[in-house]
Structures are given as structure tokens and as C-alpha cells.
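Severity: low
Component: inverse-folding endpoint
Summary: output formatting inconsistent between runs
Steps to reproduce: submit the following C-alpha cells with default settings.
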């Protein structure tokens, strides 16, 4: 399982937790789901940034210091 799939699963699990919390009226579960979803989105963004930086380094031949 790649990193992208892992992040997608993390985001889907958080979404499910938030939905379950809403249906049961559990505000704490809803808040946990929101927090986990935000973490998953941040991790996905971090991965995209690192991929872009690596691509630019390959394209322009700059080395890491």
C-alpha cells in the first residue's frame, strides 16, 4: 500500500467517524473525525509539496544541501 492510498484511507476513516458521530449525537466523535480529516489533508498536502520539490530538483538539476 502506497502513501497516497494510506492517506486516502485515513481521510475516509475520519469522514466515517464524523458521520457516525453526527448520527449518534456524539459531539466528541464528530470533533475527532474533523481533527483526523484535517491531519489527513495536511499530510496529503505535505506529500504533494515534497513531490513538487523533487520534480523541480530533477528538472533544474539543483542538489540538496
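Observed output (run 2 of 3):
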Amino acid at each position: 500500500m502506497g502513501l497516497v492510498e494510506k492517506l486516502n484511507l485515513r481521510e475516509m476513516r475520519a469522514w466515517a467517524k464524523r458521520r457516525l458521530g453526527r448520527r449518534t449525537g456524539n459531539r466528541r466523535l464528530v470533533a475527532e473525525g474533523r481533527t483526523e480529516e484535517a491531519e489527513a489533508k495536511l499530510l496529503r498536502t505535505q506529500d504533494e509539496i515534497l513531490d513538487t520539490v523533487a520534480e523541480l530538483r530533477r528538472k533544474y538539476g539543483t542538489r540538496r544541501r
